[in-house]
Amino acid sequence: MSSRISTYEAWHRLLDGNERFVSGDSLHPNQNASRCSELVNTQSPFAVIFGCADSRLAAEIIFDVGLGDVFVVRTAGHVIDDAVLGSLEYALSVLHVPLIVILGHDNCGAVTAAKDAVEGGELPQGHIRDLVERITPSVLRSLREGKTDVNDMVVEHVKETVRRLLDSSRVIFDAVDGYSAAVVGVGYRLEEGRAQLVSTAGVL
Length: 204
Hints:
- The chain has 204 residues and is an alpha/beta fold.
- It has helices spanning 7-23, 33-38, 59-62, 82-93, 109-120, 128-144, 150-168, 170-177; strands spanning 47-52, 70-75, 99-105, 182-189, 194-201.
- It has a single domain (7-201), classed as Beta-carbonic Anhydrase, Chain A, CATH 3.40.1050.
- It has 8 helices and 5 strands.
- It has a 5-stranded mixed beta sheet, with helices on both faces.
- α5 (109-120) crosses α6, α6 packs across α7 and α7 (150-168) crosses α8.
- The longest helix is centred in the C-terminal third of the chain and has 19 residues, at 150-168.
C-alpha cells in the first residue's frame, strides 16, 4: 500500500520536478541500482500519469522522478480504452495513488491526424482510424468554438479526456467524488519543456 500523500502534495511534487527539468537542474532521483533493490517486492507511486505515447514525452524525465515514483500509462493521443481504464483503476484501487495526470502536448501527431480527417473528410486506414475516431469529438468541439489551431485542439482533447475518464469509470468517479483522488489535465510545451495545468477534477 502506498504511503499516502495528498493530491496537493503529489501535484506539487510533479510541478517541482518539471521546474527543475526546465531550468536544467534535474536531480535524477531514484535512478540507481540500490533503488531497484528497494522495489523488488513493492511499489508506492505517488501519481499515475496517462500520457501520449510520443517519444518526446517521457514522463519520468520531464517531471524529474525515478523508479517507483509514478505509474505510467501511454497511448497515442492519450486515447482511452478498456486496458487504460483497468490500468488507471488498478493504480487508484490497489496502489492507492491520489493523483491522475492526463498529459498531452503541443503539435500532437494523433490530434493532427484527427484534424486532417475532419477537414479533409477522409479517415486513415488500419487501427489509426480508431485513434482518429476517438479524438474527433475534441476536434469538433474546438471547431464549434472557433478554435482552428491544432494546439487549441490538443488542449481541448486533454480536457475531454479528463471528462471522459470520469464518465467511463465508476471507480475513478467515486474516488474523485469522495476526495480521495483528483484528476488533472496538463499540456506540455515541447520547445520549453514546461507542463501547464489546463483542467482539474477534484480537490488539489
